[in-house]
Amino acid sequence: MSKKYYQLAPDLTICRIVNGMWQVAGGHGYIDHELAIADMMKYHDAGFTTWDLADIYGPAEDFIGQFRHRLSTLKGKEQLDRISALTKWVPQPGRITRPIVNESIERSLRRMNVSSLDLLQFHWWDYNNPYYMDALKYLSDLRDKGIIKHVGLTNFDTEHVQTMIDSDLPIVSNQVQYSIIDRRPEVKMIPFCLEHNINLLAYGSVCGGLMSELYLGRMQPSIAELNTLCLRKYKQMIDAWGGWNLFQELLLTLKRIAQKHNVNIANVATRYILAKSAVAGIIIGVRLGIVDHRNSNAQVFNFSLDKSDCNDIDAVCTKSNNLFEVIGDCGDEYR
Ligand SMILES: NC(=O)c1ccc[n+]([C@@H]2O[C@H](COP(=O)([O-])OP(=O)(O)OC[C@H]3O[C@@H](n4cnc5c(N)ncnc54)[C@H](OP(=O)(O)O)[C@@H]3O)[C@@H](O)[C@H]2O)c1
Fold it and tell me: Which of 94, 150, 303, 327 is deepest in the core (most CB within 10 A)?
């Protein structure tokens, strides 16, 4: 058994399964606005009260604003305290000035209908452009003023998180891809996070849905058969990791473990990463108003994997390529 909620900071509690909103940005089917907001209410009622979003995820920040308005009207203002909304700022590479930072954060505040951001996760495309240090400094100033409660990062590698820490820029979290097949964080990032008390928020842990019964025993799908951007993205990751046949062997192993615990493959994949050191939460993408896996994903909190389960999973993975060697550290796939 494991706890459903986690204290990311004294004033910031998150649900350990975070609703990922990249899916509303396009490439994941038509999102009906009304149905989406109604679905957000259902996630909230089921206790999935934390949202991961970004300024660049289409209408995601507006959805948070409208959802907050709807929730407070229907169920009372006190319900708003249960929500945590973790947004990102993903600026275009270029010179970063204080007014640019202030305007971007003000836009997110307005869109999300909040007076302060719970967590602002900063992404930077190009380490050769040194303005990321200025950006972090200005974001830290906004945190000191209470406009941002906490500053985090996304897709930063260990070396550059180290630079932040050396410059006395405190970081609460780093959001990175982390799954049974993509274990790059284990090489450098997790040891570093443990030493410096930084939390990891993991995404891609169910590989866009490929880690599920739906793909067990199936022939290798072509890219055209994969109808969402995230399925295509993680299929490429599987190809780099070891290919479809090895992935089938992994799915078979996960299925056997799932049956033992009376859960499903996605639950085992999520549970495995949730139990890893430094991992505060797993972000699972939600296609609002289209399909929901709420009941399924709630099972993650009702069981634990034992040592033999983990050994069996790890034994399959020893046959794979080492993605740290193939791709590099966390976030290197974006650079
Ligand atoms: N910082 C970054 O650069 C970055 C990058 C990627 C993602 N993210 C964040 O992380 C979130 C999640 O990552 P992701 O979208 O890449 O991938 P993901 O969470 O691995 O995949 C989401 C998909 O998995 C399927 N799924 C979820 N629960 C399931 C279950 N219990 N059984 C079977 N299938 C299940 C659903 O597919 P169907 O809807 O098709 O059923 C869902 O749309 C994003 O929404 C975003 O917030 C951040």
Answer: 150
